[in-house]
């Protein structure tokens, strides 16, 4: 059976229209122009999208009033249609409705285009315009989409334009509407401008003067993904099988609304997923926020009932990794400014439109019951989710869960740990992560997510080849281990992979993992979220597209290849694997690999599989295994129908003596019809129109040909004529095809008995016949007796029967995957951990110009024992420097010995903060098992790592934030079971020196009473001398040297006190004006002189009193 004879080839019938319209002009008489029908008037053109980073931009400026998403990620060219609120509102009130279907009270949030002084019609091509008409219309078209106000007439309205307006008004201005027309999904009005500027689509004009552009239906996923990546939402309006009785056009209805955080399909899923909702329930001055999170893959609503501070919100953002944030707050801009430092995705403000359309059930004319089991979520968040998920009412209801339990399960499921009954995860507040520069911060001008302003430890260590591997590394950095045995298992595995003997095998593993792409676990979760289950939780139907299902099969095949590469690597090191419990868990003895082998055999027995490259081609058609008896019967009957079509065409050629003009005669197979047909053929299923080129039968004689053959002439073009030779079927539309692809074998209308009845075969005879060949012979004999004009009905049934068999196999495979979801999760977790371990093993080769070592851990003999000794350590971010600059870097040596606290003094720019960060980073990396750029390190593990270094952007005053952060860290350090590393940089500098020094001294004395090791920096020699009186405190400073040319920093940690900060010398190095520096020195000498006099007077007073 040829590949073109499938359900994918639905061809809409072209309606006839003879209406006329008039285009007015001030400079010329009206020229009557035939109105094109809905399908004929649509010019579908898709510009190539070769360079996503440089989208095309309009050639002239256009004023467009569009409520832009309040996000920080702005693509080049978006400035061309930024909102102009004042001008747009003025023009909206002064001009009449720009389109015939617009209502007088249309809200400006609908995003209607406004007239501009710069015409845009030059960037939108118009076909078949005479020079006279072009000259007449140029003077009046001030915009491609809007007629000039002085024209006084609106563009003609049609049933489609009114239908479009009815759908569009239910969507907010930040949602791009893709509406199907035939084989294209089209964008209109402000959406078309967005498609042109952001995605490079070519603008054209609809018959109703609406600007438009379109994308082929097979490329819809690609452009939906681009829409979501640009911070917009996307709505899809598809054609329904029935007609719209009011507008007299094909009915169209929204079938899906996507936002960056609500997608679950692997074809649309990005590096993050989920929606975080933040709400203020108190006053605007309150710092308390209430959080709710939606996980689209697991269909869970997570509610945090207790209020959160902004610090806790930021920490949860890093751990949840949402794809979008929605804020319902009277201080939206303030909250957005705080979050934008840590989150680069879209940050939306809640729109009251959601409450309007959802609370009155005006959304998509269906019941809103997806969230009926979630009782504790905010009403505003419920409205927003219903806006996105109302079309998913047939899917599994969304469940509610606890956010703390969710995070624990996600974290521990991805970490192999010993012992299994404990929780060996160290506490690491978000403040510590940001102070140490572990994760990248967002850039305001970034175009890609996770792009950092400065380098971070994550960026240096992240050489993972998979997205899941990068997420696993991030999870390890945010959850350092406290159990020494588990850390050592990781170290031994990294050493094994770093061995030069295994380089080839390691590269093979990484190559195979990179080919897998999206993990099988996330694909299965996405498939589950798009399946229909009955009340007994039994899978009934799946809405997965063929492309997504093929991607699932390809991932299974590639996962098997990755497993073979991993087993080859571990098998070549059998002795080391058996001595390492973690690697033994990863080896072929794990039951998850036996499941994977069973899964692959099941796929091969169900479907006709090919190489992954072949299966991912857009023309690949998934089919069931040819050994399936029912499928053999269907294919045999479809082949026989094609033979009858060919026989009809050959007979037609002989009758009308067309054979001399044919390339190959007689015909042996059908070929798809084209607009420039040189031979005659049938157009693809389902209409089976006969297409004859004018080289065979001239257009003038085609009507005569139709009368002779008793067929109906549908339409004629310059190159071919279309004729209806078969009885058309009712409701044969693209929507009917989409519905037919969901058919299952259990449905009676597509089973074997229904086929027998359609062919007039006795069902009992068919059932009694033994063997597939005998059944095929019997059914073909019955098929040959069927009238030719009924072949279309039979072909339609057989193709649906074929889909029924295929979809039954799909459901069986999905049920098998869902039943073994835990196995799949464990298997993908192993792959992610192996990716991270291989990534660590390559660090010594990537940065070979510095020494690398693995820290040694010494469990404490008693609870108060702490060991921390670092030798010749390089800051990880310094590894990004050139080798010449890195040679000038002075590695750090640090040894606490028996001291509990190091008080670090020194002049500005001497490296105090860098040294403190390096100590914290070294401890953190050591406790995830990673190698370190140092000569050696010995430590006892810490279960709490606390750091406050540097200042971060915040709306609060410097001193308020400083004291709040310090209080948060002290609360963690005061836990009875805490063994902490505490790093505090220049606390108290935000207020006067007397109060600041007193607070810092009080904090330091409190720390000396706790079970920890601390490094505290200060510029106050007096406070440092007071603390030195405690035997547990040692004074240190960053060395320097005064030369004739100025001060030189040695960046070496030395014992003793630094009594001067050398602020003026540092300011001179920074380029401070010389005049101001001279004044500074003068004021300093005067201040010192006055202090000496005050001290002498105080001494004399004291002596006089005695």
TrEMBL record:
Keywords for this protein: ATP-binding, DNA damage, DNA repair, DNA-binding, Nucleotide-binding
Record-linked SUPFAM superfamilies: DNA repair protein MutS, domain I (SSF55271), DNA repair protein MutS, domain III (SSF48334), P-loop containing nucleoside triphosphate hydrolases (SSF52540)
Biased composition (Polar residues): 119-129, 148-161
Disordered: annotated segments: 14-38, 85-161
One BP annotation, GO: mismatch repair
Gene3D superfamilies per record: 1.10.1420.10, DNA repair protein MutS, domain I (3.40.1170.10), P-loop containing nucleotide triphosphate hydrolases (3.40.50.300)
Tagged with keyword DNA repair: yes
Low complexity composition bias: residue spans: 85-98
A single MF term (Gene Ontology): ATP binding
GO cellular component terms listed in the entry, alphabetical order: MutSalpha complex; nucleus
Family listed: Belongs to the DNA mismatch repair MutS family.
PANTHER family, per the entry: DNA MISMATCH REPAIR PROTEIN MSH6 (PTHR11361:SF148), DNA MISMATCH REPAIR PROTEIN MUTS FAMILY MEMBER (PTHR11361)
Functional description taken from the UniProt entry: Component of the post-replicative DNA mismatch repair system (MMR).
Name of this chain's protein: DNA mismatch repair protein
Organism this protein belongs to: Giardia intestinalis (strain ATCC 50803 / WB clone C6) (Giardia lamblia)
